[in-house]
Amino acid sequence: MSPTATPKTILIAEDSSVILSLTRKILEQQKYRIVLAKNGGEVIRQLESQPVDGVLMDINIPVRNGIECTRDIRAHADPRINQLPVIAITGNANNYSMEQFREAGVTDYLPKPLDFDALVRVVRQYVG
After folding, report:
1. What is the pLDDT of residues 47-71, one digit of tens each?
2. Are strands 108-111 and 9-13 parallel, antiparallel or unpaired?
3. How far does CA 11 lie from the centroid of its chain?
4. Domain count within the chain
5. pLDDT for 49
6. Residue 63: which domain range?
7. In sequence order, what are the beta bridge partners of 37?
8. Residue 2 domain-assigned?
9. Is pLDDT above 60 for 3?
10. For 86-116, how does the pLDDT look when each residue is reduced to its tens digit (9 = 90+)?
11. 72 located within any domain
12. pTM for the whole thing?
């Protein structure tokens, strides 16, 4: 990355502070800028308040779950928001089918416990 390139920004929607701080550290080491949403109520507000390049979405966040938030993102009027890659993170993927993820507009998903190599690979793949 050239020194003048702006770092890509990732919104992490996650209510577990442990996972949040680990994920944040890993991505910051990869030179991503991190924006946080502690619950589904904050996701759209954060996306509207600043440019973001991708979303890491915990499926089980409070207020509005990750599936609802992803639908909100896909239904958003602003193409800068509704086209964002949304990578779901879930500890219980078995509760959801890939079909439900796809129908909601999830770009890809990572199971918990997170494999941090896979995290970096998937973020690079969709966000650059």
Report:
1. 999 999 999 999 999 999 999 999 9
2. unpaired
3. 6
4. 1
5. 97
6. 9-127
7. 13
8. no
9. no
10. 999 988 767 788 888 999 999 999 998 889 9
11. yes
12. 0.93
